Amino acid sequence: MPSKVFSKLLGLFLLLLVFQAVVMALIFHHFVEHAADGELRVIGREALWSGLIALCVALPLATFVAGRISARLNRVVTFARRLAGGELSARLAAGGGSDEFSSMETALNRTAERLDADFAELDSSRHELAAILDSMQEGVVAITRDGQVRWTNAVMQRIAGAQIHAGRPLVHSVRDPEFLACVRGALERNELCFGRASSIAPGRVFEVSATPLASGGALAVLHDVTGIENAQKSRREFVANVSHELRTPLTSVQGYVETLMEDPAPNRETAREFLGIILKNATRMNRLTEDLLALASVESPDYKLRLQPMKAGALVKDAIQTLGGVVRDSGVKLENAGAPDDLVMADADALNQVFGNLIENSLKYAKNGKRIRVGAKTLDSEVQFTIQDFGPGIASEHLERIFERFYRVDKARSRESGGTGLGLAIVKHIVQAHGGRVWGESELGNGASFHFTLPLAAPRSEAAPAANAAQSVAPQNAG
């Protein structure tokens, strides 16, 4: 474009100069031919040559002026192209003049500055909005009017995986029919739609809301309600299990009481037998109530432990002394498998309940092996406690679920022995509240072992220097 402007300006100057020279040549030629005096002819010829000389001088001058104008226009065009290419920091060099070109250059520079500031503000707002959307717990995806993915936040990308990205059709990225129907309703009917998606991510449930946008697209938001669904399912199962556990003994109690009431003179032995059964079922309901209260306590956010340093060996010894009598009455021997004197952070009352529930659980299956072993060993930063029986063992498919509430490996045996199915669940929550882990190991025919860990009161690297210092001081005190 600048070369065209330069050519036009130069051509215009040349045309004007040639026109002027031709007109002057014609005038002076006519004047010289009709002049009678020789002096006039000389003057005419001199005037003609003067015009030609002026033409020769004006031609370079016109070329120079046209070149200057073309160069300034060339800078303006280059500047405009840089702006169009997104280089908003481009500026025209200040000419310092007061002509129209200088005013135009100043105005263009101010326009570029405003554009740069506006785009910087827009870019900052866009990044801020993206950060806000990425920090949300919900997945967000924007869809164009033709069903293409326009934008997604980080949560949506984690939910749907790498297959969802801008420019890809939504139906190729998310295959859940309810989600797609919800988005389609917002796009086609231009109304807010709600739905429920359960096949976007395995094992997760989402509430979906799709909102139409003014641009013709739609914005879909996915809210993860998996935790709520699981909590509601657990609550329903919990209520059903408690109702079932209470219904069985209550039905038994009601039946035996009605039988006694219907017989005006019941046999003494029969009455005594019936009352024994009633007492057994009442005791079972009382244990269930106590375990429910204990489980509610350890699951509560307000559950607090009174942690203090205690020797692992002392915890094992106290557990054996406390429960030894109950175990002996069942014909099973409770053995101490040994434990270190390392200090662990523990709540004595809570640990008594842990040992009690685990030993009582092992006692149900240890009658064949006639013994239960309780011991502990030190690991890197924790102490591992073990309660081992030598009964029939537990099948591997049950090991991952035995710490669930009301889960029983052998329902008939548990009910016969009066178990509530809550003991191991209580153990799990107490151990986790201590910062430890709990798990079970078993091999059919070779008994089962239950392990739990408690953190050391101090790392072994810190405890060793203290022990060495105590040993070095003891001989000096003895001397």
Walk me through the structure:
The chain has 4 domains: 2-87; 136-224, 2-Layer Sandwich (Beta-Lactamase), CATH 3.30.450; 233-299, Orthogonal Bundle (Helix Hairpins); 308-462, 2-Layer Sandwich (Heat Shock Protein 90). Helix content is 59%, strand content 14%. The strands form 3 sheets. A 5-stranded antiparallel beta sheet has the order 2-1-5-4-3. It contains 14 helices and 12 strands. A hairpin with a 5-residue loop joins strand 4 and strand 5. The chain has 479 residues and is an alpha+beta fold.
Roughly how many Å apart are the termini?
Answer: 107 Å
**Beta-sheet strand percentage?**
5-15%
* DSSP helix fraction: 55-70%
Shape: elongated
Widest sheet: strand ordering: 2-1-5-4-3
CATH class of the largest domain: Alpha Beta
Give, in order, the helices and strands. HHHEEHHHEEEHHEHEEHEEHHHEEH
**In CATH, what is the homologous superfamily of the largest domain?**
Histidine kinase-like ATPase, C-terminal domain
* Alpha-beta content class: alpha+beta
Spans where pLDDT lies below 50 across 5 or more residues: 462-479
**CATH architecture title of the largest domain:** 2-Layer Sandwich
Tally of strands? 12
CATH topology of the largest domain: Heat Shock Protein 90
Sketch the major β-sheet: 5 strands, antiparallel
How would you describe this structure in keywords?
Beta-Lactamase; five-stranded mixed sheet; alpha+beta; single chain; 479 residues
Q: How would you summarize the topology of this molecule?
A:
Layout: H1 2-34, H2 38-84, H3 100-134, E1 139-143, E2 149-152, H4 154-160, H5 170-173, H6 177-189, E3 193-197, E4 206-212, E5 218-224, H7 226-262, H8 268-299, E6 308-311, H9 312-329, E7 333-336, E8 343-346, H10 348-365, E9 371-378, E10 382-389, H11 396-399, H12 411-417, H13 423-433, E11 438-442, E12 448-455, H14 460-478
